[in-house]
């Protein structure tokens, strides 16, 4: 067997210790698949004295993670600190500059600085691997970039944030409101103390930006992703969606159209029978559509020590074998430069839920506004009667343009008889 591959791991939190445990538990199997042993030569974390449940006596310790890049015995640098700036970014840049291949699970870093980092890697001819950055244990990167490499991808979509999917699942199953379920998820450790990256859709948008770059062979463009989270989803909308034959999911969807590439993250109503509608709890799913392969659905655990370590070590095995591809699947000169399509130009069907005063003429006012914006109704649902009181009215539309829907919504929201901000959820025939 060849000389062992010596790795340096920066970050010994959930993922870092998971990687060390996997490498120890499956050492022989990993060595057989990698063609050589993979050994941890050096590590870095903030607190040297913390017991991490893994033996660290025989490894070189660095207080400064950036210094790992200069460790003379290291073949590959593994960045598992996290964050788009600070030590994670400095380490990845220093490692590439020092000619060391990098493995990272850091979606924030890749979404925001991935274009420049990929250029640096390409200029130096150094591999940069990031299977763990999207959908944890699901081999979404390899699946799209390598497995589906022969296809023109038309669309890639997914449930990319387990925290949101968990919250929406519990809200539906138990008929409870968002704030209460979020607080419980935080107490159970399923949501961060500061949950905004997850519930406001930012984490899913980081991952979608990476998937879109791979699917369409273009540099990552986080700024072009339209992002909405799940704070405004109510138990009432989830229940009404069920009556209409839908489930509400936070999806990331990137599509290639004649006008360019659209990328958006927002709550969606998907038909109950769609495979993605049944991906519940903390699970993630990625759906890709290629011109020759058709539809491919991948599902699995999108986070956690074991699944994420599985993806990190798969990258290490590739590097040990000398397997690597350009970051976005093609050399920078061969990348696509299709423009980004703004959200205003999105076309699709919509669900609107209004709380209106139950009095004559209200529905006529609303449908009149929709008519003015050339929006045609698919169905209308009004439950019960309570003259002079608030009742929910649900409208679903045929496909129309987002800009027209936005105009209609602001006029509908301004009507005296409409008592709350209307709820809008896009319907996706996924
Ligand atoms: N957790 C998941 O399920 C998951 C899934 C997919 C991708 N990821 C990604 O994997 C990466 C790591 O996530 P995680 O959940 O493992 O994070 P974590 O548990 O918070 O661990 C972060 C680690 O980085 C170390 N660290 C922080 N600042 C440092 C510094 N300045 N110098 C040296 N070490 C420093 C911390 O040291 P101390 O331990 O001493 O504080 C800790 O060991 C992130 O990019 C994340 O987005 C995570």
From TrEMBL:
NCBIfam families: PRK06349.1 (NF004976)
Recorded superkingdom: Bacteria
Class of this enzyme: oxidoreductase
Name by which UniProt lists this protein: Homoserine dehydrogenase
Coiled coil: none
The keyword Oxidoreductase is assigned to this record: yes
CDD domains recorded: ACT_HSDH-Hom
PANTHER family cross-referenced by the UniProt entry: HOMOSERINE DEHYDROGENASE
Pathway annotation: Amino-acid biosynthesis; L-methionine biosynthesis via de novo pathway; L-homoserine from L-aspartate: step 3/3; Amino-acid biosynthesis; L-threonine biosynthesis; L-threonine from L-aspartate: step 3/5
E.C. no: 1.1.1.3
Organism this protein belongs to: Belnapia mucosa
Pfam families with a match to the protein in the record: ACT, Homoserine_dh, NAD_binding_3
Domain (ACT) ranges: 351-426
Keyword annotations: Amino-acid biosynthesis, Methionine biosynthesis, NADP, Oxidoreductase, Threonine biosynthesis
Family under the similarity heading: Belongs to the homoserine dehydrogenase family.
